[in-house]
Amino acid sequence: MRHDFDGTLSKVAEIGYREVELAGNFGRAPKEVKASLERAGLIAPSSHVDYNTLGNQWASTLEGANTIGQQYIVCPSIDEKMRQEPGGWQRAAETLNHAGEAAKKAGIQFAYHNHSFEFQPSGGKLPYDILLEQTDPHLVKMEMDIFWLTQGGGDPRAYFHRYPGRFPLVHVKGRDRRGQMSEVASDNSIDWRAIFALSQEAGIQHYFVEHDDPKDEFASIRASFNYLHELRF
After folding, report:
1. CA–CA separation, 142 and 79 (whole Å)
2. pLDDT tens, 111-126?
């Protein structure tokens, strides 16, 4: 994306994807991003923005998202320093609520994306549970990263049952039998069919294939696409 923005989007579309989630505009204005997406025949329903963006940059970020035509903005992580401080997760929940309130007024749904560290107990509770309990479900939805949640010892289906409709977005990446990140495939240790059978209960609207460090980016997303395209649940 950094070196060939339009070409990369075109290759993604050629594989068969119709939606992408952005993680930065790579120096392009929102209008330019929208034009590039349209040329590739793609839409970007959501984007990741850094936690620090939720302060003074939040209003302009929301404006840019509306220009692109996005329905969601996702905070991908909480700063490590805050995570280590007493009461840090509670303060983070308050910040997420404020950001979600402003986003709602701008016509955008705010959400939070997990890693595995939200499943390491803090003060006797899982941080993921703190965020779910202390954020307004109308203002702050969750983008569940199924790999990281599973890696942390969580059960996606249990969260879908406990918080129905809270998970409009999911990150879909494989976990092999050794617990390593992989493409999405039938031999994953994640039971995709059983998880996606609960999509309606979870409230899932958008599924984003992801791999943090693939050997070959396009081969990776093609392999995942081919498997998911044939998956029935």
Report:
1. 17
2. 999 999 999 999 899 9
Q: What are 124-155's pLDDT values in tens digits?
A: 999 999 999 999 999 999 999 999 999 999 99
Conformation bin of residue 107: beta by default, left when phi > 0, alpha when psi is -120 to 50: left
In this structure, the dihedral spanned by the alpha carbons of residues 188, 190, 191 and 197, taken in order and rounded to 10 degrees, is: -130
Domain range summary for the chain, segments of one domain joined by +: 5-230
Helix (H, G, I), strand (E, B) or coil at 145: strand
DSSP notation for 170-221: EEE-EE-TTS-EE---TTSSS-HHHHHTTHHHHT--EEEE--SS-SSHHHHH
Is there a contact between 17 and 209 (Cβ–Cβ < 8 Å)? yes
d(CA 119, CA 97): 21
Q: Could you tell me how many helices (H) and strands (E) the chain has, helices first? A: 11, 9
Q: In angstroms, what CA-CA distances link 113 with 6, 48, 52, 75, 119?
A: 26, 9, 15, 6, 13
Q: What is the mean pLDDT of residues 25-51?
A: 98
Distance CA 228, CA 34 (A): 27
If one counts every other C-beta atom within 10 angstroms of the C-beta of residue 228, the result is: 16
Q: What is the pTM of this model?
A: 0.96
CATH architecture of the domain covering 5-230: Alpha-Beta Barrel (3.20)
